[in-house]
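Pipeline run #58 for the internal structure catalog. This entry was flagged by the ingest filter as a single-chain record with no existing model, so it goes straight to prediction. Upstream metadata was stripped on purpose; only the residue string is passed forward. Reviewer on rotation: M.T. Logging verbosity set to normal.
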Amino acid sequence: MAYFEWGVDLVIDNGPIDEDHKVLVSLVNELHTATSQGQGHDMVENLLQRLVSHTRDHLQREEHIMSAAQFPQLTEHLVGHNDFMDKLLELQEKYRAGSITVAPQLSALLRDWLSIHIRRYDRELLVFMKKSQKAQQATQRSQRRPSQPKPGR
């Protein structure tokens, strides 16, 4: 059984954001498996490199989508993204400096990010996009209605 399971409560767009999040879930599970087999420290360097690269690309993609959608919480979201990247880079530096506690710290960071950030903050994007889509559809429907004849003419 996987340490962290992908579930419908993590779905944001059934597209690129979710695909990126699934990669994060996979990396969390990879780290957990290695750690539970006593190999966490040995594989951390490679995992951190992949994680930093993937996360940087993912956050840029997600921020672009938010910007294009005119997501009102974009600024707050950017703060969370920057904080997460800072923590990843800090753990990478700790590992390079010889720390042996990076694997469990990384596991906790990723678990919390998936559990809290995606389920709470990224869900705000989902709610916003659904509302925006409904508003757009209502506007389009109202524009397609034939004008009603005025009484008495």
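catalog note: The first helix runs from residue 16 to 36.
catalog note: The mean pLDDT is 87.
status: ready for reviewer M.T.
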